[in-house]
Amino acid sequence: MAHIGFFKKYKPFLALATLGAAFLLQACSTKGGSEVEQNAIQKISLGIQGYEYGPAVNKLVVELENPVSTVETADVKVQTLSQDREVTDAYLSDEKGNETDAKSKYVTLELATSYNKETFSGLASPFTYNMEVFMNQWVKEYPVTISDLTVSGKKLSKEEDAIANRIIPEADQFTVRKEFTGTYLNALKKQEEELTLNYAAFEPETLQDSKKNPLLIWLHGQGEGGTDINITLLGNEVTALTRDEIQSQFTAGEEVGAYVLAVQTPTYWMDEGDGTNGVGAGVSRYTEILMDAIKDYVASNPDVDPNRIYLSGCSNGGYMTLNMAIHYPDYFAALVPNAPAYAYYNYEKNEDGTYKRVENKETGRPEAVKLDTVWFDQEKVNKIKDIPIWFIHSADDTTVLPENYPLPVYKALLEAGATNTWFSYYESVLGVDDKGSQYMGHWSWIYYFNNQVSGVQNPADITGQADLSGYKANNSNLGGSQKATVDGKEFDTVYAWLNAQKKD
Predict the structure, then answer these.
(1) Which runs of consecutive H residues, i.e. helices, occur in 385-486?
(2) What is the total count of domains within the chain?
(3) Strand residue runs (E) in 327-402
(4) Are 312 and 336 in contact (CB under 8 A)?
(5) pTM of the entire predicted model
(6) Contact 130, 122 (CB under 8 A)
(7) Is the pLDDT of residue 208 over 70?
(8) Residue 300's Cα: distance from chain center in Å?
(9) Residue 302 has what pLDDT?
(10) Based on the domain organization, do 142 and 236 belong to the same domain?
(11) Which CATH number does the domain housing residue 59 bear?
(12) Alpha-helical segments (H) within 112-224
């Protein structure tokens, strides 16, 4: 009975102690449970990655008001750009979307991505194609809705226009970013003009000063011009050139890797002076400034080997690749034109030097008028026939017709005596990011970025033919039944071949 008396005697004090403990427990619950009772989504950021079909939002990085210790997605629903998205994974992360084991105020949702055959882009792409200027641009608005995201037991929801909140890790690897400006003569208008090009460079941390290292230059297509270099890096998946499977094929002694330089024009590489996209049968207004911009970067990086500078590009950039080699035949160690829009024939011009265009009755669109005379004449052939060149094209390209552009160009080079000149010719363009998808035939550079350029056409089948019948498009052998062979050495990929090319 003594314990009962004890309880009666000290009951008031116990009551006060109990009340105090309750307040203490409540305080602890508020502090420790703030992630449950006092939380909200503060901000949604778009994680963007380049794919073979262009950029796609593959992550959402959610910033919370308070840190949490768990995240669940059993009930979560996500929409981006008014399209339902599948959440494939969720985890605590840092502000850039990198997973962490620690308590965090950031949660990353990984999203499934795919190719949209109707829009010719990734599902809910952050890009829109401006049909007035024929260029990719960021969408003006990118609404994101997250419903019932469960963090530490509490469901959170939010709707936000997130287009201004962009996280692009692969593009961020291009740490060197610069504008290059100069004054040049506009040959069409016959007056001086100020021009500006943007460029960005990837510089592998593994490369040291002990050996000079190769530089791989990329020139974008028509749709990637403008003033935002990230559009250039994502539109053609230039970021793929930084990945290990490609970087590992470039060597300098014991060092592995290559510098990557992407340059952007404000209009088009095929702009001859009037601000419009030309037809590839003239000289670009950006010829001189591009050379100066390249030299500017090389001068700023003494680790670049001046004897191992490789120039590649697609479509407009494929034209510019050949155009630059013709004007500066002693500068580049090798070229890789992808779907190059460098014309073999001349096209009719107006008195002011612009191209005459007539409406195509089938498409309703204006088209340039092809002439029978040759633009890629013997003088041009002789300037580049001794430069190592590897062409890439697809037979079903309806944008840059093979018979008017790369086929006769390549044939002319072979017949002029070119020996280290190759052509990978595909039946169609098949990708790997969205298995089973067949892309438009113009996108043959997809094979280049996917490290799938291996087979080449047999030069003996092409040389001496009265027409272009010697070409045999080949998907199964990735461009042709032969392998590029130089001085008895056979190359399995275009990058292995590039790595071996060096100016004398």
Answers:
(1) 406-415, 445-449, 459-462
(2) 2
(3) 334-338, 345-347, 357-359, 366-368, 370-374, 389-394
(4) yes
(5) 0.92
(6) no
(7) yes
(8) 24
(9) 94
(10) no
(11) 2.60.40.2180
(12) 169-172
